[in-house]
Amino acid sequence: MPHGLEGYRGLALKALINIGAGIGDTIRIKKSSGTIYEGILVPRFEYGDPECIVLKLKNGYNIGLKINDADVVEKLGEGSKLTYKAQPTPKTVLNLPKVPIIGTGGTIASRVDYRTGAVTPIFTTGDLYSMVPELGEIANVETKVLFNVFSEDMTPKHWIKIAEEIASQFGNNIQGVVVAHGTDTMGYTAAALSFALQALPVPVVLVGSQRSSDRPSSDAAFNLIGAVIAAVHAPFGEVAVAMHKNLSDDEVLIHRGTRVRKCHTSRRDAFKSINADPLGIVKNRVYRQISSFFKPRNSSNSPKINPVFEEKAVLVKYYPGFNPEIIEKLLDMGYRGVILEGTGLGHVGSVCIKAIERARDMGVFIGMTSQCIWGRVNMDVYYTGRDLQRAGVTPLEDMLAETAVVKLMWVLAQTDNIEEIKKLMLTNIAGEFSHRLSYRWSA
Amino acid sequence: MPHGLEGYRGLALKALINIGAGIGDTIRIKKSSGTIYEGILVPRFEYGDPECIVLKLKNGYNIGLKINDADVVEKLGEGSKLTYKAQPTPKTVLNLPKVPIIGTGGTIASRVDYRTGAVTPIFTTGDLYSMVPELGEIANVETKVLFNVFSEDMTPKHWIKIAEEIASQFGNNIQGVVVAHGTDTMGYTAAALSFALQALPVPVVLVGSQRSSDRPSSDAAFNLIGAVIAAVHAPFGEVAVAMHKNLSDDEVLIHRGTRVRKCHTSRRDAFKSINADPLGIVKNRVYRQISSFFKPRNSSNSPKINPVFEEKAVLVKYYPGFNPEIIEKLLDMGYRGVILEGTGLGHVGSVCIKAIERARDMGVFIGMTSQCIWGRVNMDVYYTGRDLQRAGVTPLEDMLAETAVVKLMWVLAQTDNIEEIKKLMLTNIAGEFSHRLSYRWSA
């Protein structure tokens, strides 16, 4: 397998091997229909059929061509490497508000080298100005690559490092912080930072992209611009996530870190605020606040930096046929807290009661969220819900299950006292839930 | 605690006890503002503040009144029991198409006795015609209460009984079957029946309600009418779910059983078709097909009745900090299949690789779905996804995690052969997933 062609298969791979083609070479494909395409061979690292050959055409767009036996594939020339020419920071930028950009990995922080197929971090400041020159009109950005890990490999240990890096920036007369992050677990990290970093002097805005920054359809630049604008102009001192509002390049939503969830595997508008309005929106390079409830930014705030997480918290999703012995095993493994993702208003089968009572008797916290995602748990409606509460389950209002398990890790690191744990879980620390209205029509 | 007042608390409960009030009694509340309300005391079994007293007013609406110390609560009279007068099946109905309605429990199949606060099944045929007289214009319904369990207590054993009951009806010259079901796990049951009952002669339509049938805001009657119309008129021979499309009483969506998910804890439009169009819609009592792909109903079909489920399948949701030892414990517990609910395009942290390889070596099936809910897993994009595939993970396209674990229970009951299991999991049996387009633009 020639290096760089790992993503290709079938007839596409065979044709490329036949002509000795490598990534970056100029290729001509004459389809049996007579149409001719010329372009630079790029590695397959995205969606679509691996039996397509993907060429970057002269107009900059990528095209995927399904190869048949009747097609003619030729190599026209050896590849020239596509590079980004790093720019020095423009002088005019130095007077703009300072916004550090912290790279942690993920699609937004990477580019593909078309010669080698390798994914490398883009985040030198010079790289960034060359790729997203608009940033030079908005802020004096300075990049720091903290680490470069895939989003799904992020752990509470990484959250701590990110929190510490952000905290170390607060003294530097900055206007806001941007964190570039893989999208898969960006919601979890945003929730973690929301608890770890409180009373913020400036906004902390996480940003990702669903398509890598060297693809014409990439959302990286647009999201990044939106994130930097929010970091500079948003009135809140909270942790937020900046991502495309819809499929076109016109609006970036700014979601509260404890309320945001990735709700599509691939679309650019995958991120949604759940059970809450977004904090704000960036349109035509203008930030507008949407939610009227927020903790205001204040440069004289003394931030509360508390990046500690206890990993002995576990998320368990219920389904019919669920065996309560699983809960017993988790207790045996030493877990100190369990977030149940129950059905509907917050239920699990009554077969689970015994295991839950054992957890309660061991001083293990059991919180209830709903796998419905939207809406609020309410364990007072049916007697089964009341039975679960008697057995020791704490209903967690309209908190996301993902946020709940992150919060529990943070809470368990604050105290060993079960009553204190319950109290903290039901204290609204970072907008992670809202209380039920105390009065409403019952009909 | 007087019987029936279990749902009340605080000042509301105190005031009711003081005047010796019971459920069904006529109560007058004079608010400190001077406003006077009179109505029948109903039990608290729904949303809202338990310190509200809920009265059924003369106009039929319920009102919840928050009680303060300054309010005057009086008992005007002993309660008369609210009853539904059972009607005999109207004679004209007998010529209409036959639709059995099978009651399994849940809100739709229950009413609250205002005297005792007890929840009782409504599903005698006479009850049904008296509550939803419109049914008498659509079909000759006949009810059967199979059992009466809370939705969250449904297990694969219940799925089997429901499937057998449905199958026993096929010989009876019926036009369709309706199953009344609690909403919490209705999606799981619909998926289970979709695999257990194939080549259906008529539609099988599950229906639930988010608010119980004796509340003015109940969606029970409207959903039930929609379900019966779909059972009579829909062109498909598949398992479906009928629920409100939106918040007003105008449309009922008919979702494919393998593609539907409860996405809100309490709203009437909680059910959504995911990654697929709904099968159809009922509006103004007319059924209209939406999806052009379906298995047509055919009275000469010989249904394939195969209601078997192996409970040694487990659903595991991944999150940062997830401990792969949990997978090891599940293997030790004898699980024969694991559905992972991974992040994004179908990822779990690389710390899980070792446990997954052990599962593969033990002949345990490991399937990947996405916690994003919407979209398709694609484990060819990043090398981490390819690593997981090499370790033995099977990507499950755009299948819902909930449907995947139900399908796995069914597949594991069909065969012990791991290659056969993989093949069945990737065979589209009941519209549970769609294949990726084989050709698409890569940009």
Overall geometry of chain A comes to globular
Q: Class of the largest domain in chain A, according to the CATH hierarchy?
A: Alpha Beta
Q: What is the assembly state of the chains in this entry? A: homodimer
Tell me the distance between the termini of chain A: 67 Å
Structural class of chain A: alpha/beta
Most extensive contact: A-B, 96 and 96 residues
- Count the E strands of chain A: 23
Strand order of the largest sheet of chain A: 9-6-10-12-13-14-17-18
Provide structural commentary:
The structure is a homodimer of 443-residue chains. With 443 residues, the first copy, chain A, is of the alpha/beta class. Chain A folds into three domains: 10-77, SH3 type barrels (Roll); 91-305, Rossmann fold (3-Layer(aba) Sandwich); 313-425, 3-Layer(aba) Sandwich (Rossmann fold), CATH 3.40.50.40. The first copy, chain A, has helices at 10-18, 125-131, 135-138, 156-169, 186-196, 220-233, 325-332, 353-361, 383-390, 401-412, 418-425; strands spanning 26-30, 36-41, 52-56, 62-66, 72-77, 98-103, 110-112, 119-121, 140-145, 177-180, 197-198, 204-207, 239-244, 251-256, 260-262, 271-273, 280-283, 286-289, 304-305, 313-317, 337-342, 365-370, 393-395. In chain A, the strands form six sheets. An eight-stranded mixed β-sheet of chain A has the order 9-6-10-12-13-14-17-18, sandwiched between helices. In chain A, a hairpin with a 2-residue loop joins strand 17 (280-283) and strand 18. Chain A is globular.
